[in-house]
Amino acid sequence: MNTCAEMQKSETHQPTVERVRSGQVYRPLVDIVERKDELLVIADVPGATPDSIEVNFERGELTLCAVVPPREREGQRALLTEYGVGDFCRTFSVSEEIDAAKITASYVHGVLTLHLPKKDSAKPRKIAVKSA
Fold this sequence. Notes:
Elements: H1 3-9, E1 25-26, E2 30-34, E3 38-44, E4 53-58, E5 61-66, E6 87-93, E7 104-108, E8 111-117
Parallel strand pairs: 1-6
Antiparallel strand pairs: 2-3, 3-8, 4-5, 5-6, 7-8
């Protein structure tokens, strides 16, 4: 079973997060990479800070949300705005092959990286062949 493909196909399109403020909400662009011992989820969340990012895993669903403050500053007037600013939210259904207790996250230069380790039972293993 290809865990990465399963994760991509089972993405839910309606976030389970309730909005408490107005403004744009974007689906962050995400790459999902499968390695032999983990899945990597790499998400673009420009304008966020590590404190404004919330990652939750509950009942097989992984949810990433980030609150991004508006860019307007007092005494400035935008002449052109092509880059949308708003919060980010995305939810994925995750295989039971992931060890939820060992999920880690890091955020560098606008990119959130999640490491989702596979359970030992889901990792490929080499079987020794013995002679009779």
